[in-house]
Amino acid sequence: MFLEHKYTIDELIKRCKAGERKAQELLYKQLTSKMLGVCMRYATDKMEAEDMLQNGFIRMFQKMNDYRGEGSFEGWVRRIMIHSSIEYYRKHHKLLQLAENGNLPDEIAVSPNAVARLDAKDMMALVQRLSPGYRMVFNLYAIEGYSHKEIGEIMGISEGASKSQLSRARSILKGLIANIEGKRYEYAG
Amino acid sequence: MNMQDNEFDDLFRNKLDNFEAEPTGKVWPGIHSELNKNDTGKRGFFILKIAASIVVLLAAGLLFIPKSHQDQQQKPNKIVKSNPKAEVTKPEQAPVVTPVTKDEQLVAAMVQHNHTVPLLVVNKRNVVKERSVKNATINNNQQETIAKIEPTAPVIASQKPDVKVPSATPDTTAHLIAKADVPDIAPAKVKPIIIAQAPVNNTPKTVVKRRGIHNFGELVNLVVAKVDKRKDKAIEFSDSDDDDSSVTGINIGPFKIKKENNKD
Fold it and tell me: What is the complex's ipTM, to 2 decimals?
């Protein structure tokens, strides 16, 4: 029975390259939870994330033959998801907001404990509250580990713009966390 | 103390890097339909192969029956379609025949070695694949080939009664319509031969059993007779007095085509 058979990832990849629908579905099921996690960081909400996810998978299956076993397959898929997410924003948001000059927020101090106290769901919610441009850069730098140069290339902005967007992103996040902390103290008091 | 930027980033990365979430049910169908748009999907490729084979088989079969009309006078064609049975497995008997006698060995050798034998039905699976069967015209090549086996042919022919199925008299067995270009056959893979069956009716006819194998069709009939013990052979060639072979009967799985051969 086909469903009973446990395929390895390599087997699935091979079959997907051949265009086997069933293998494609199995591979999708294998990867989708993680990849949705990736897309959600780039999206405003889960619904948007699923659009990015869908586009990402379509692209992945279409480009399947490009993957020749060099490097981690999951890493390869992740990159596709990230590009899919950024492409989604290019389409749906006319302008990726660049760093604004006015009203720079004060440098807010937040303790590591405060950050550590946040669970993953809270953190995700915070990231999603960022404006799209800041969100992209923060994800690419802080989570994926791209350099400012690489971010510049990916997003079509300058290195300098990438740097300033990143620091803005951090400030806003800290501010949000501080608010949470503040409320915590209020209630604790 | 204000933490370093790295520290801040790390805290976020540690918790978000492996974040997982379950997608709703609409995601996969969306992917699926988009992929279907772009390519036909190879899931049905196997089915397609079978379908294609059947289509070609039909076409070839239809092609050959009119041909034998031209050769002999107008004969009514009976196309009998049977339900799919396990008869498809019959051709697989071919490999099972263990050659014992010298001529059986020859026949077996002929079956195995394509260079002297036209393609025979050797099904590995129950998939009937079609071999492009062309109309036979005896040319020099074939004559040579037949001459090769001629010496032992009489021996084989005489043994025919032993292996014959009751109603399968030589004249009722049909001839395979095959391309006489034996060299062409050699490199090709062994595939089922489309055999048209003459109507296996026990009408009294003068059985003119010719000694030896005079054409390609007779050769195939001989081999098939050894293997296929049914009344209606998987494929039969007409046994006309001329040296042309034409398919007069097919009996493979769901396909049964018989040609009423009322010639005398």
Answer: 0.89
Cβ B20–A36 below 8 Å, yes or no? yes
* Identity of the residue in A28, A142, A173 whose CB atom sits nearest the CB atom of B13: A142
Q: What is the DSSP letter of B42?
A: S
- Please tell me the distance from the alpha carbon of residue A159 to that of residue A151, in angstroms, as a whole number: 7
Residue B86: C-alpha distances to residues A2, A131, B92, B125, B252 (Å): 25, 68, 11, 12, 10
With CA atoms as reference, the chain B residue closest to A19 would be B42
Q: Which two tokens stand for residue A122?
A: 């809270």
Of A124, A143, A170, the CB nearest to B13: A143
Q: Output the CA angle A53-A54-A59, nearest 5 degrees.
A: 95
Whole-number Å distance between alpha carbons of A40 and A124: 8
Measured between beta carbons, the chain A residues lying within 8 angstroms of B42 are 18-20
Tell whether A148 lies on the interface with B, counting CB pairs under 8 A: no
Task: Give the model confidence (pLDDT) of B111-139 as tens digits.
Answer: 555 444 444 444 444 444 444 444 444 44
Q: Tens digit of pLDDT for each residue in A162-180?
A: 999 999 999 999 999 998 8
Calculate how close chain B gets to A23, using CA atoms only, in Å: 10
Any CB–CB contact under 8 A between B25 and chain A? Answer: no
pTM listed for this prediction:
0.51
Cβ B176 vs Cβ B244: under 8 Å: no
Chain B residues lying within 8 Å of A84, measured CB to CB = none
Matching residue, tokens 């029975």: A1
Q: How far apart are CA B199 and CA B160, in angstroms?
A: 19
Helix (H, G, I), strand (E, B) or coil at A167: helix
Contact indicator for B27, A81 with CB cutoff of 8 Å? no
User: CA A162, A129, A29 angle in degrees (round to 5)?
Assistant: 90
